[in-house]
Write a structure and sequence with these properties.
Elements: H1 3-21, E1 25-26, H2 27-34, H3 38-50, E2 54-57, E3 60-63, H4 66-69, H5 77-81, H6 85-93, E4 96-103, E5 106-113, E6 128-130, H7 135-142, H8 146-155, H9 169-182, E7 185-188, E8 195-204, E9 207-217, H10 226-249
Antiparallel strand pairs: 1-3, 2-3, 4-5, 4-9, 5-6, 7-8, 8-9
Helix pairs in contact: 1-3, 2-3, 6-10, 7-9
């Protein structure tokens, strides 16, 4: 192999390592970090993207761990934990941010980000709570198809987590209708005393697949700033959907 080919391979691997190191890096970032011209950096990134070693969301490039895990095509909880869009939500709102999915009558955490919003709280991934006890669970229930919702409600016992947790099944149904109309759910210390939460659904093909939420001490989330928080969560929810679709499309 010619010397220039070895040099090209080395620089390509350096680009791959750089993308892996960052939680999303732009073309300009690669140019600056590796002292590459725009055309050279673009050529390396495009080649790596075509080979599916990395993927692109808007202007940022991300490492694709599936190409090295031997599990391509298997969507597991690890895939959800690798989503990067949630970091932008956490950094924008400066609040603990969560992504959760339904498993039976439970809400299971698939991603958790706390201050300084740079790394995942891996020890909390997989934590469970009852669907009715949090904004995440309630917003998923509120946006479910009628048959699926009725089936789940028939299995739920509405046990209490705090004195604020819903226990009246009829009132809870009315509450879910209000959430569906509003488009977001508000957890007023219903699972943890002193903590409030705002959550929005995450959709895929017009079906709810998860919920995105932020949580903070009660004095940081009030009736006056809920809509502002919900607006930012809405943008984050759409970004997560697009990221999931992008990741699935490269396999």
């Amino acid at each position: 192999m010619a010397q220039n080919e070895l040099s090209t391979l080395k620089r390509g691997l350096l680009v791959l390592e750089l993308v892996k190191k960052h939680e999303g890096i732009t073309l300009a970032g690669v140019m600056k970090e590796l002292h590459l011209s725009k055309s050279t950096a673009f050529r390396f990134l495009t080649t790596l993207e075509e080979m599916k070693y990395i993927y692109k969301i808007q202007t940022q490039y991300f490492f694709n761990p599936k190409m090295f895990s031997g599990e391509a095509g298997d969507r597991s909880s690890k895939d959800w934990a690798s989503l990067r869009s949630i970091y932008q939500v956490a950094q924008s709102l400066q609040m603990s941010t969560y992504l959760g999915k339904v498993d039976g009558t439970d809400l299971v955490m698939t991603q958790v980000i706390h201050s300084p919003f740079l790394n995942s709280a891996d020890e909390e991934i997989g934590n469970r709570s009852k669907l009715h006890q949090s904004a995440l669970g309630k917003v998923i229930l509120a946006h479910m198809e009628k048959e699926s919702l009725e089936s789940l409600l028939g299995q739920m016992s509405l046990e209490r987590a705090t004195k604020n947790t819903f226990q009246d099944s009829q009132l809870f149904r009315y509450h879910l209708k209000a959430i569906q109309e509003d488009g977001y759910a508000f957890d007023d210390e219903e699972r943890i005393v002193g903590i409030r939460c705002v959550a929005l659904p995450v959709f895929r093909n017009k079906k709810v697949i998860a919920a995105l939420a932020v949580a903070a001490p009660a004095d940081q989330i009030s009736r006056t700033n809920i809509k502002h928080i919900a607006t930012k969560l809405h943008a984050g929810s759409k970004a997560i959907t697009k990221e999931i679709e992008t990741i699935e499309s490269i396999h």
